[in-house]
Amino acid sequence: MTGKNLWIAGVAAPLMLAVLLLAGTPRMTATNNPTAGAEVKIDNFTFGPQTITVPVGSTVTWTNKDDIPHTSVSTDGVFKSKVMDTDEKFSYTFTKAGTYPYYCTIHPKMTGQIVVR
Amino acid sequence: MADKKQDLIDQQLQDLNEDGVDRRGFLKCMAWAGTGLVWTMSGGVPVSRAFATGKDAKMAGKGADFSFVQISDSHIGFNKPANPDVTATLQTAINKINAMPNKPDFIIHTGDLTQLSKPSEFDTLDQVLKGASAKDVHFVPGEHDMLSDNGEQFLQRYGKGTKGSGWYSFDQKGVHFVGLVNVANLKAGGMGSLGHEQLEWLEDDLKGRSASTPIVLFAHIPLWTIYPDWGWGTDDSEQALSYVKKFGSVTVLNGHIHQIMQKVEGKVSFHTAMSTAFPQPAPGTAPSAGPMKVPADQLQQVLGITDVNYVVSGRSLAIADSPLGA
User: Fold this and answer.
1) What torsion, rounded to 10 degrees, do the Cα atoms A19, A22, A23, A28 define?
2) In CATH, B65-323 is 1.20.210.10
3) Percent of chain B predicted with pLDDT > 70
4) Which of B204, B227, B268, B312 could lock onto B250 through a cystine, CB 3.0 to 4.6 A?
5) Which residues of A touch B (CB under 8 A)?
6) Domain at A34-116: CATH code
């Protein structure tokens, strides 16, 4: 009886660890320790990078590095920043997969997109 | 130097008069004369001469039936290195207007009154404008004036009696003025936009007027395409300009690009004004259209106001740009 339980535990523990690693790693990266891909810098009237791809659940943060205010507004009405003056930030967490085009409503030539997978 | 320029221009004018209207020569003349330029539209024939200072400047408005001044892009609230004190430079512009030998009848502000549409910024602007000798000020909004509230505050303060997002028209001694709004509901990837409703209104507003009525259109973003990469144009301006085709004298005044640009196309004269706050780079000469930092002692040479004189007999408008530092 005791031996059988031990055997199950012995198999289950590495399995559970593997499951945790698989499910947990991307989430950890996106929320607690954002990679460079989850940051969009607004500089010289440009969103950079213009397209970024992030896993579901990622938080993307925009930072305005220009001397002129900008916004980051989803073309499909999914998210809408307030006006960001110099060095101000806006963050949005993407909970569903999809492609999210966005633009600056003040300077509509400025466009970008977030691809969530 | 000024006399030399004047001679050159006179020579060019003579050539123009002999050969008819040579637009290439005319535009070339405008290009090198730069900021200090007066030009008149007389029955569709453009005539230009260097904008003079001193004695000649006093002559500029002489014989005019009325005159007005265009100011633009005061960006009250902006405090970055390109100009840490935009209130002071606006005040300088107002002082300049008040010192004009021929008092302007009114002022047109072609937008970007403020940097961030803050109530305190609008208050400061109002305070400075109160000191202007011309009490009548006509506004159109820039994109900076409708940042977070779709322009509600702007309309409350400056939009009494206007339609839609703030467009309107008025008459002054036989000249028909139309203030247009091309900074509302901008579409992703596009430039300035007037929108269907405003275009319909404009067509209707101009319809019943005689072709001899001088027309002045003013809006924030240029109503002609200057540089699409930077959004310096209006997507549906062609439609608007089709409504003024029958008129003998059309003047289009814009701001937004913080520098002087002019173009004459048939009977339509296009003109953009300097900012009173900070200069922006010439199209394509910088990575972006952001504020341009110039040495402090040169700032007043790249900021300025635009003085427009109208003579009824010739149905002509003479436009003179003058830097604050002149």
Assistant:
1) 130
2) no
3) 79
4) B268
5) 44-46, 66-69, 75, 82-83, 85-86, 101-103, 105-109, 111
6) 2.60.40.420
For chains A and B, count residue pairs whose Cβ atoms are closer than 8 Å. Answer: 57
Question: Which residues of A are less than 8 Å from B290 in CB distance?
Answer: 44-45, 66-68
pTM for this prediction:
0.80
**ipTM for the predicted complex:** 0.79
Averaged confidence pLDDT in chain A: 80
Cα–Cα distances in angstroms (integers) from residue B92 to residues B102, B263, B325, in the given order:
18, 28, 9
Q: Determine the average pLDDT of the residues in A20-25.
A: 42
Given a cut of 60, whether residue B148 has pLDDT beyond it is yes
Q: Which residue of A has its CA nearest to B221?
A: A107
**Domains of chain B: which residue ranges?**
65-323
> Sheet harboring A98-103: ordered strands across?
A51-54, A111-116, A98-103, A73-74
A14-23 LR contacts (CB < 8 Å, sep 24+):
none
Spatial neighbors of B159 by CB under 8 A, at least 6 apart, are: B139, B151, B166
- Give me the pLDDT at residue B35, please: 30
**Contact assessment for residue B280 and residue B303, using Cβ atoms and an 8 Å cutoff:** no
Position B204 scores a pLDDT of 98
Shortest CA gap A56–chain B (Å): 25
Taking the C-alpha atoms of residue B26 and residue B30, their distance in angstroms, rounded to an integer, is 6
**In this predicted structure, which of B62-76, B90-104, B159-173 has the lowest mean pLDDT?**
B62-76
Sequence ranges of the domains in chain A: 34-116
The torsion angles phi and psi of A89, rounded to 5 degrees, stand at -125, 160
Determine how many CB atoms are found less than 10 A away from the CB of residue B14: 10
